[in-house]
Amino acid sequence: MITEITKDAIRKVQAALGREGVYVSWSTTQRALAAAFKGKGYQDRVSAAHSALFRDDPTDVPERLARFFEEVNETCQAFGMSREDAHKLVDYTYDRPVGDPAKEIGAALLTLASLSVVTGFDMMSCAEADLEKLQRPETVARIRAKRSTRHGRGPLPGFDAEQRVPE
Predict the structure, then answer these.
(1) Which of 52, 65, 127, 138 has the smallest number of Cβ neighbours within 10 A?
(2) Orientation angle between helical segments 137-148 and 26-36, nearest 10 degrees
(3) Its pTM surpasses 0.85
(4) Which domain holds residue 28?
């Protein structure tokens, strides 16, 4: 059974499709991966999408931290938190001792679920919709194009205007 997307897993998908060693289109690979991950949890399906999306341009922990921080800030902004309050919370957080990653991930998910409860949003419906959007060929193309022109590996997103975006 495939549990993560690796070169070996892609070869297994190609073999299962009868196309071993042959290029398999994104949509065909996506359908095969969806079948392989049917019944898997959300994190497993995100892992599959993540591996497929970043296979030629890997992401790393600092990049995922920056994107997570950006999304948390956008969520808070969407619910009306001011820039000033956000800055106060950043200062408050960074003035305290560093936490344990496992505990902080749990607290982040618990707090997001609680926010979803009090605001009336179905957290998993929102998450599934975003994962579905992430797997669309046009979204994959947009993200890959943006990443191909990025200015570096720092925390801020952006692109180098001197580099041409692939068509």
Answers:
(1) 138
(2) 110
(3) no
(4) 1-55
